Amino acid sequence: MEIILYISALIAAVAFVILVIYVVITLKATKQTLTDVSETLQSLEKQVEGVTTETTSLLNKTNTLADDMNEKTAKLDTLFEGAKGIGDSLKDFSSSVKEISNTISRASKEDQEKTAQAVKWGASIVEYMSNRKKK
């Protein structure tokens, strides 16, 4: 009976040694996996820092461009206001030319009547002088 006890103790010891070997192998594999994960995370951290730097740079450039666009838009607003002023001036000038044209047209009609009367008077005078010379 003692032999069975020794044999079972021996089997338990061998099983324990095998268990310890497998635990050591598993822990080594886990250590390698954790090392790989750590390296991947460090690489990822560097890439995220690079992306963050590029994003910050791009955001600064975008803000600069937006400020530049706002300045140029303000200048264009001034230009459009000036163009509107020129348009208003041209409209006023056109109205003035139209008034002058109407005034000239009225004066021309009035002068036409006076000219017709003058021609009639002139013809009458010429006719009177001709009749006088004949007598």
TrEMBL record:
Q: What is this protein called?
A: DUF948 domain-containing protein
Segments spanning the bilayer are: 6-25
Q: Organism source for this protein?
A: Oceanobacillus bengalensis
The record's section on InterPro entries has:
UPF0478 (IPR009293)
Taking the record's annotation, the residue ranges forming a coiled coil are 27-54
Which keywords are on file for this protein?
Coiled coil, Membrane, Transmembrane, Transmembrane helix
Keyword Coiled coil included in the entry's annotation: yes
